[in-house]
Amino acid sequence: MTNVSSICIVGGGTAGWMTAAYALYNLPNVTVTLVESPNIPTVGVGEATILGFDHYLKDCGIPMELWTKASDATIKCGTYFPNWKGDNANIWQPFYFPVGTSNDGHMGDIVNLALDAGATQTDMETYMSWYNTCIKNNVVPENTTIKGGNAHVGYHLDAIKLANFLSEYLNKKYTKLIHIKKHISKPVINKCQVEKVILEDGQELVADFFVDCTGFKKLLSNAIPGADWVDRSHMLFTNAAVASQIDYETDDEPQVPYVTAQATDLGWIWKTPVRDRIGSGLCYNSDLTTKQEAEDHFVQHWGEHRLRTGKFNHIPFEPKYNRKNWRGNCFSVGLASGFIEPLESTGLALLIIGATGLRCLQKGHFTQEDVDGYNNDIETVYEDSMNFVALHYFNNPRQGKFWKHVYENFKETPKLEELATGYARTYTPTLDESQFFPRNTEIFAETNWKLWLHATGINPATPRIEKDNAIDIIKAMHEVELQESMPGISNRAWSNR
């Protein structure tokens, strides 16, 4: 058993400050020091969340109306994948949620029924009101309130502005927070324990527990022996991104309430609308495409006049994670613990799961059981998330340099093979779905897995109901939900509240 009365968070940015927010609010008897190097650029690969982000910040005591305004947040109702299965072969992945109808069942259950019965993407787009509401009308549900939060929507936000807001807010609120802006020289490691961190001016920071939030540098993680990095490049084929900020064409251009991940010949381009700009970038494979080719492709897609600064942020990365993330008196949060391409906005979700590992310190100490449990959770969530993202590439018929490479080199993990064959051969509605679809990570629901299995041409062995009956059900739901959710309000109107 190791007693903990002080924590040192090494690194700022979104990872550092979101971790600090959790520790300061939930560990009242623990002193928190955050040290960050001044003027270190933040990696802004993804600026979108999945479900539960607002609840995390609520659990950190951060008022929703403050952080949404400070981070230029807009509402996210799902993700749109144009041309993903070929030209004009689009996929819409909404967040599924009820709207208080009198119908028995959850909209997600209805969608599952329809997918199980073999409903096509066209069917779903035609009869799902959230598709019509979000994509065709560019509005968000009017019952989404800024005051109380909503478990059924995500957010687009400026991650750098969020980190700056949290820094200012937490420094004002907590006298027990020690905030140091100095360059970090090196950690001092004794076996698997971080004894101290030495700053550039010779100052030494000593604590009972350390959190590595230094991003891809992995300043502490790389120094502690026993790391076990798991490479997933055989199933996730992007390893670089070129990103920039994109201007809206006009002041009244719609701020769409969804992230767009558009397939192109070289990979895919994300588009994330925040209040005053669009965050965008091209994810590609650097073994197939040069930096210059990536820049040219990205500019051709948008038009040079849309680039806010004319500058590009080149971000190399590796699809991997650390199976032994917690070693000794230190674990990593954010990019220092691993990375998955931003296709499903998992970055902030994984950050949250990592940071909430500090809850075991509420008792004032930690044990080896806490360490093992945390590492097991991290491994599970990374494996599930990587398998889910890999499913987007499985059996994809798109043409082009990148997609041909994916098709020829994709190797199924045992989990994906088990999932695909089991669902197609043995799945029946009477079985516990947890046999097929991971549930304990709370990132992706079985509906999400089914949608992408269906998109790859894998259908259940035994549909729950006949396709025509499923279509009739979602038609009826569609009519009721339209009345409940329309007319909505524009994302721009929501973000300006």
Task: Characterise this structure.
The protein starts with a strand and ends with a helix. It has 497 residues and is an alpha+beta fold. The model is unreliable at 97-107 (pLDDT under 50). The chain has helices at 13-26, 53-58, 64-70, 107-116, 121-127, 129-136, 159-173, 291-302, 347-355, 368-391, 401-409, 414-425, 446-455, 467-485, 491-495, and strands spanning 2-3, 6-10, 31-36, 74-76, 78-81, 91-94, 139-140, 154-156, 177-181, 184-190, 193-199, 204-205, 209-212, 229-231, 240-246, 259-264, 267-273, 278-284, 313-316, 320-322, 330-332, 338-339, 365-366, 489-490. Strand 17 and strand 18 form a beta hairpin. The chain is globular, with a radius of gyration of 23 Å. Strands 6-5-16-17-18-15-19 form a seven-stranded mixed β-sheet. The protein folds into two domains: 2-47 and 158-229 and 321-388, FAD/NAD(P)-binding domain, CATH 3.50.50.60; 76-155 and 240-316 and 395-497, 3-Layer(bba) Sandwich (FAD/NAD(P)-binding domain), CATH 3.50.50.60. Helices cover 34% and strands 20% of the residues.
Distance between the termini: 49 Å
Tell me the total number of β-strands.
24
Arithmetic mean pLDDT: 84
**Describe the biggest sheet?**
7 strands, mixed
CATH class of the largest domain: Alpha Beta
- What is the structural class? alpha+beta
CATH architecture of the largest domain: 3-Layer(bba) Sandwich
Low-confidence stretches: 97-107
Strand order of the largest sheet: 6-5-16-17-18-15-19
Question: How many separate domains make up the residues?
Answer: 2
Radius of gyration: 23 Å
What does the overall shape look like? Answer: globular
Output the CATH topology of the largest domain: FAD/NAD(P)-binding domain
> Number of helical segments?
15
Find the CATH superfamily of the largest domain: FAD/NAD(P)-binding domain
